[in-house]
Amino acid sequence: xxxxxxxxxxxxxxxxxxxxxxxxxxxxxxxxxxxxxxxxxxxxxxxxxxxxxxxxxxxxxxxxxxxxxxxxxxxxxxxxxxxxxxxxxxxxxxxxxxxxxxxxxxxxxxxxxxx
Length: 115
Known about the structure:
Layout: E1 2-6, E2 13-17, E3 23-26, H1 29-34, E4 38-42, E5 46-48, E6 56-58, E7 66-69, E8 78-82, E9 88-93, E10 107-110
Parallel strand pairs: 3-10
Antiparallel strand pairs: 1-2, 2-5, 4-9, 6-7, 7-8, 8-9
């Protein structure tokens, strides 16, 4: 299935293809504050529809993930990085996807605070 999503103001828009079987809630210092629910997909399943220069990027801790955000509305719609095997992936905040009921998506909790 193909989904569309964006930040609150629409400046950062994207499409992502796949089946949302679950999402991850992380308690690291960044994710805890953002409150995002992350769906990890291969990078080639994610298409950014707006210019990269329209978004901000924040790196912290081990600089493993590039946390992207909208400089206008402040919403964090996705992050980019690599999985443990080195495959490029996107971590999509399902709260930014149109038309899904994220309450019905199973959530796995990840202890990022202890890492």
